[in-house]
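Reviewer comment 2.1 asked that we show a complete input and output for one of the modelled complexes. We chose the flavin-adenine dinucleotide case, as it is the one discussed in the main text.
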Amino acid sequence: MADTSAPLNRPYDLLIVGGGVNGAGIARDAVGRGASVLMVEQDDLASYTSSASTKLIHGGLRYLEYYEFRLVREALTERERLLKMAPHIIWPMRFVLPHSKLVRPAWMLKAGLFLYDHLASNMTLPKSRAVDFRTHSSGRPLKDDYTKGFIYSDGWVQDSRLVVLNALDAAERGADIRTRTRLIKATRSNGLWQAELEDRVTGKTTHVQARALVNAAGPWVARLLAETLNIPNSKSVRLVKGSHIIVPRVFDGPQAYIFQNPDKRIVFAIPYEQNFTLIGTTDIPWNEAPGKVGIAPDEIKYLCESVNRYFKKDVKESDVVWTYAGLRPLYDDASANASAVTRDYVLDLDTQDGAPLLSIFGGKITTYRKLAEHALEKLAPVLPAVAGVSWTATEVLPGGDIGEGGFDAALARLGRAAPWLPAATAWRLLRNYGSRVYEIIGEATSLKDLGEVLGGDLTTREVDYLIEREWARTGEDILWRRSKLGLHLSEAEKQKVSDYVQQKTA
Ligand SMILES: Cc1cc2nc3c(=O)[nH]c(=O)nc-3n(C[C@H](O)[C@H](O)[C@H](O)COP(=O)(O)OP(=O)(O)OC[C@H]3O[C@@H](n4cnc5c(N)ncnc54)[C@H](O)[C@@H]3O)c2cc1C
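Response of the prediction step:
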């Protein structure tokens, strides 16, 4: 593996601020083109928006209503690519869309879905079709008022793992990835960026130099410009909070539901972590500082009401077992309505005073790879180190080389290679790590060889891997971002995981 990281006394080609999906995607692409890259993330990878999404790899059916054809076409093309790049953490899903007389006419849904099926030329997923809920199994959980609707394809992603796998690939190609490291100041001098970084664990500061800086700070993009870099900028970001609730499983089957609300918004109900249903999201303008955000009681009520209009089984506020919320860092296109603000991205390149600065406004998980490619194309004329050819469209992410026959065949092979692994554990490990599962199980020939069980089926061997390879530093990193085991473990087990990680990383 080539070590392209900059020696201490030499400038990096690229300093990337932000370890969300956009920062990690740009780091991977840039290092693969031969650039020396440093990416800094103030907390854990994907601590903010990139772990709080609805986790859809989708074109965004509803954006067609806002004539966002460029974005939808790009996202649909990316959907196909991502399904191949990371078949362990990204998989196809069918979405059931009941027709409701009160919202959009059936012809409009049909026309929208026709466009959705045909905008991208590389679609391999099953196309949309009309369904009669009186006879189709997906109609079973729905109230009898809903007799007709449609079913169409999109994708599902384990969002925070997508970020980690991009960072991991970048690191394996030579990028320097530093978590819990904040950019506190950067100035241009002699055509270079002079940056001051703070280690948020030790409080120590260090100085680095870089030829170009990428501001991929998500919700902080405007603040980083104004406060940390002291650079006036005409573009701004609009923060819109979106929240989700998780309840015990409301319906059976692998299909998800997309429900139209009387306010014309849509809400998804998605099978989640085997035993649960994920319901979201909301669109609430956010005018306070970026940071950790939580769901408000009226959002819980709104989400329950949204699904209760459609499902026979009533979802009560008291059923909620977990919630999460995040801030969409949307490019401010001056729309009056938070749901109408563009979900497309804008790249702003500032080359004044020599050292280039590229700021990322907006974006979707789905379009992160293409965004990275566009970002580097934009930088290439002023940063020759990233001028190499784009290469990420066909290269799998770590663990994505699961072999012939897709996930089921890979699971069967794992079953033969490690017959002692319980079926549910084999499934979970393959879904999280893909082919890297073999790195975790190593020479083990029995469950006992994987070390102590900390809770559920989480062993010390797996936790060690997450600490050594995936930058996990706290129990929360493991329970809520590297996995969603937090939903399955008891409070005592979660504490045990945290204690173990603390002792290992002390
Ligand atoms: C509710 C909701 C639902 C969504 N659903 C979907 C969906 O289903 N599908 C889809 O494709 N997209 C979806 N999105 C959009 C998608 O999640 C975002 O576009 C994407 O995650 C943004 O990534 P990012 O890297 O720009 O920002 P972030 O993930 O927020 O990353 C920015 C990072 O920068 C770091 N940072 C900031 N300042 C500094 C500093 N000074 N030093 C070091 N680090 C710093 C932050 O800690 C943060 O981790 C959704 C978003 C939301 C909120």
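Residues 69-85 form the longest helix (17 residues). We note this here for comparison with the apo prediction described in Section 3.2.
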